[in-house]
Design brief:
Layout: H1 5-9, E1 31-36, E2 57-60, H2 62-67, E3 75-78, H3 82-94, E4 103-108, H4 116-124, E5 129-132, H5 137-145, E6 153-156, H6 163-171, E7 174-178, H7 185-193, E8 200-205, E9 213-217, H8 219-224, E10 232-238, H9 278-288, E11 295-299, H10 305-312, E12 316-321, H11 324-336, E13 341-345, E14 360-364, H12 370-380, E15 384-389, H13 395-404, E16 408-414, E17 417-422, E18 426-431, E19 435-441
Parallel strand pairs: 1-4, 1-5, 2-3, 2-4, 6-7, 11-12, 11-14, 12-13, 14-15
Antiparallel strand pairs: 7-10, 8-9, 8-10, 15-19, 16-19, 17-18
Length: about 450
C-alpha cells in the first residue's frame, strides 16, 4: 500500500491518554497542520488531499483550498489576515457542542518554520496541534541549485519591513529570503542594485508544482520585472564568488560573532596615524552594537576600520569617505577581512541623501561641519549615533545636535596608556591622546529585537 508524502517523513507518534477537558478546550491534536506544495511530485495536491476525513473545518490560502479535494459541505476559511482566521478556528472549536470537531490547516512547506504553527501554538497550545510538514521551500530552492544551506542566513520579509532582509543580503554571501507582498524580488532587487555589491538573485516560484521555475537574475533585472502571480515564495541572494564554503559547519546559520574584536591598528592599512585606536573602537562598537540585520554608517571612514568591524559582526556597513586614497584603503581592508562594505565616495552630509536610513552611525574626526554632520545623521538614525572627537570646544555643539534630533546623549573622555618597552627589560606607560567618545540613543530602542 502506497504512503502519502507526509506519512513517509512525519508520522505522528503515539498520543498520551486524553485528560478530562473543560467545556470549550480544544482536544489534543484537534488542529492538524499539513505542509503542502514543495514535495516535488508535480501537482501540490497530494498532501492537501490527505486532510483527515473527520475534518469539519479546513483553513488555508485560496490556492491550497482550490487544490485540495475536500468533501462537500466542509466549512472553509480562506487565509488572509491571520487574526480573523484564528478567531474562526476558536469559534469552531470553542463551544461545548464542538468537542468532537477537528480543524485542518493547509500551509506551504514546513509550517513550523516561519509559519502558522507559531501563531496556532500561542493561541491554542502546542498540545492541540498535529503538525505534518512538507519540505521547507528554502531547502527545496537550495536543492534545485545543488547547494547546501546550513551556512545560509534565513530571513523572513513576509508581513515585515523588508529593510532587515535587504541588510542581511548586503552583509552575507548566502541568504534566503521568504517573500511577501511589498517584499518580493522587485523590491529586494531595487535595494540591492543601489549598493553596487556583487549579488545574484535566484527567484524560486511555485516550487513542487508543474509551474515551478527557478531563475537566476541580477538585482537590476529583478527590480524591473513584474512578478505578480508567479507564486514566488523564496528568493536566494548569493555572492557567487563565496557561495561554496569548504568549512564543515557545527552550528547552522550565520557565522558566530568574531572571537576577536577591537582589532589592533596593525590589522588595517591606514595613512599616518589616521585610524581609530583600538581602545576607542572597542567602546564605540559596544555602543553601536552591530548585528545581523542592522545597517551601520561609518562617516569619514578613513581606513574603514569601524565599518569592517561592524561587518564582521554581521551588519551591513556603509563607509563614507571623500579622499580617493581612503577609498582604496577601505576596499583593501574589507577584502583582507573577508567582508562586504559599501563604499560611498563623497562628503557628508551631502552624499547621505542617497543612502537608506541606518540603525547606527559612527562619526570620527572633527572640523567646522561636525555639528551639521552629526545633526543630519542623528535625524535619520533609528537607534544610535557614536561620535569621537579630540576638541573640547566642539563637545557642546555635538551634544546639542544629538539632543535636537530627539536622541538622549551621553559620553566620556577616554584616556589610555599602553605598555611600552624600555631598554634594560623594563616597561613604561605610553599615553595616547585623550579622545571624547559621545553617544546618543533614540528612546524606546534599547533592547529592540529583529
Amino acid at each position: 500500500m502506497s504512503r502519502t508524502p507526509y506519512e513517509q517523513y512525519a508520522q505522528p507518534g503515539p498520543r498520551e491518554p486524553e485528560l478530562p477537558r473543560t467545556a470549550g478546550t480544544p482536544a489534543p491534536g484537534a488542529i492538524t497542520v499539513i505542509g503542502t506544495g514543495t514535495t516535488g511530485t508535480g501537482t501540490g495536491t497530494d498532501v492537501a488531499a490527505t486532510a483527515p476525513a473527520g475534518a469539519t473545518l479546513v483553513v488555508g490560502a485560496r490556492r491550497h483550498l482550490e487544490a485540495a479535494r475536500l468533501p462537500a459541505g466542509v466549512e472553509q476559511i480562506v487565509l488572509g489576515p491571520l487574526a480573523p482566521a484564528l478567531d474562526g478556528i476558536e469559534r469552531h472549536l470553542g463551544s461545548p457542542e464542538h468537542q468532537d470537531r477537528r480543524v485542518t490547516v493547509l500551509a506551504s512547506g514546513d509550517p513550523g518554520f516561519f509559519g502558522i504553527v507559531r501563531a496556532l501554538g500561542a493561541r491554542f497550545g502546542p498540545e492541540t496541534l498535529d503538525v505534518r510538514p512538507s519540505s521547507p521551500s528554502i531547502a527545496v530552492a537550495f536543492a534545485r541549485l545543488g547547494l547546501s544551506w546550513d551556512d545560509a542566513v534565513v530571513v523572513s520579509a513576509h508581513g515585515r519591513d523588508p529593510r532587515t532582509a535587504v541588510n542581511v543580503c548586503r552583509a552575507h554571501p548566502k541568504t534566503a529570503v521568504l517573500t511577501g507582498p511589498g517584499a518580493g524580488p522587485a523590491e529586494l532587487g531595487a535595494a540591492l542594485a543601489r549598493t553596487g555589491l556583487e549579488r545574484t538573485l535566484v527567484v524560486a516560484a511555485a516550487l513542487g508544482t508543474a509551474d515551478e521555475t527557478v531563475e537566476r537574475v541580477s538585482p537590476a533585472d529583478a527590480a524591473v520585472r513584474d512578478w505578480t502571480g508567479t507564486g514566488v515564495s523564496v528568493v536566494l541572494c548569493l555572492d557567487e564568488a563565496r557561495v561554496l564554503s569548504p568549512v564543515q559547519r557545527i552550528v547552522a546559520g550565520p557565522p558566530p560573532a568574531p572571537a576577536g574584536w577591537a582589532l589592533p591598528e596593525e590589522a588595517f592599512g591606514y595613512r599616518d596615524s589616521m585610524i581609530t585606536k583600538f581602545e576607542v573602537r572597542a567602546l564605540a562598537l559596544s555602543r553601536l552594537a552591530p548585528r545581523t540585520g542592522d545597517l551601520v554608517w561609518d562617516i569619514g571612514a578613513g581606513s574603514g576600520s569601524v565599518a569592517v568591524e561592524c561587518a564582521r559582526f554581521g551588519a551591513a556597513a556603509v563607509a563614507v569617505e571623500q579622499t580617493p586614497d581612503g577609498i582604496e584603503r577601505i576596499r583593501a581592508n574589507a577584502a583582507a577581512h573577508g567582508v562586504d562594505v559599501q563604499i560611498v565616495h563623497g562628503a557628508a552630509p551631502t552624499v547621505l541623501s542617497q543612502l537608506p536610513d541606518p540603525d547606527a552611525v559612527f562619526i570620527g574626526g572633527g572640523g567646522r561641519d561636525l555639528p551639521a554632520i552629526v545633526g543630519a545623521c542623528a535625524r535619520r538614525a533609528r537607534r544610535t549615533v557614536v561620535v569621537t572627537l579630540a576638541a573640547v570646544d566642539r563637545v557642546g555643539d555635538v551634544r546639542a545636535a544629538l539632543s535636537a534630533a530627539g536622541l538622549e546623549p551621553d559620553g566620556l573622555l577616554l584616556q589610555s596608556s599602553r605598555l611600552a618597552p624600555l631598554p634594560g627589560g623594563v616597561t613604561r606607560l605610553a599615553a595616547n591622546n585623550p579622545v571624547f567618545v559621545l553617544w546618543a540613543t533614540r528612546p524606546g530602542t534599547e533592547g529592540a529585537i529583529l
